[in-house]
Fold this sequence. Notes:
This protein is of the alpha/beta class. Helix content is 40%, strand content 21%.
Amino acid sequence: MKIQTLRDIRLCLSGELRGLYPEEEINSLASIIIKTLPGIKKLHQIYNSGQVISSNESERIKSIISQLKKGIPIQYITGTTVFFNYVIKVNKATLIPRQETEELVDIIIRENKDFSGRIIDFGTGSGCIAIALAKNLPGSTVIGTDISEEALVVARENALENEVEVDFLQDDIFYPDRMLEVKTGIIVSNPPYIRISEKAFMNRNVLEHEPAIALFVNDSEPLIYYRAILRIAEKILQPGGKIYFEINEALGREMLDLLEEFNYAGCKLIRDLNGRDRIIEGKRNG
């Protein structure tokens, strides 16, 4: 099928991807692709279905469709996504940020509007959490850490593109070094929390394309990253400081027990917009 107009993009996507993606997702993919076209700047232009596109753009869209048929996420194809209204670069060294992580950031911002101090984001990946917090909590100094230098390259580019100052450090949660040198008032992390046994219920595009190191934990130690971060927090989180985690929906009770074990008070388990236990927070005693 020839792709000459915006209408053709939607028709071609629907025809080529039917059976591979739900219709609602196909419509979303079409909107994402259309927004990458030169000249598509205003919302009303997106719905001008007769707008003509160039032959070069037509060929690019055919290439995108071919990659989508292989299960490659659209965010990796275009190289960007939107997180908390900020354009964030992503590649195969970084996770694609989810809505649930936006909810985590929103809670931190709402609860700490007047915060002035240091925030550390463990396992920062693309830097999306750190950047959104630095943008919205101007009194804070934000540090993002990750074991992957490839991810940190992307995070630094994202901070530059979004005109915000974040200090990104390479460090290992299990063998910390540089992160032990600072004191902080808030710790946040969205660490790996999907158990290996849960792979069977996951989409192919996630399993085949997103970095496994940022997703999975062994069933025998599903809270291993949280425990490691809490051990670091014993040394660097100030008394009364807060900790926020994104968590596996099936392990809420275990996470509450873990925070209490590490002497955190006022622990709250928070459900995401889909009604799943997804965020936990607590305040350090003493």
